[in-house]
Amino acid sequence: MATMTKAQAKKKLEKLSPDSHRRDCPVCGDHIYDSDPEDSWEYVKTKGGSEIFIHRFCVKMWGSNLSPKEISKLRRDKA
What we know:
Layout lengths: L5 H10 L25 E5 L5 E5 H6 L6 H11 L1
Antiparallel strand pairs: 1-2
């Protein structure tokens, strides 16, 4: 399986429309911006072909009992 470099993932993110819902983190619901540090988000391509951009902090929180608002607040407080 081929892996994508961070630079390639950044180019994919930049190609998306700035207001695209695909830039929204599926865990906290916050937008991922071009200006966000590259080490603060991850790119995932699923077996089904879906492409997901997700905050690195949110990967750890996925599946927790916290609401998206609570996760978003925790992520911002940590930064």
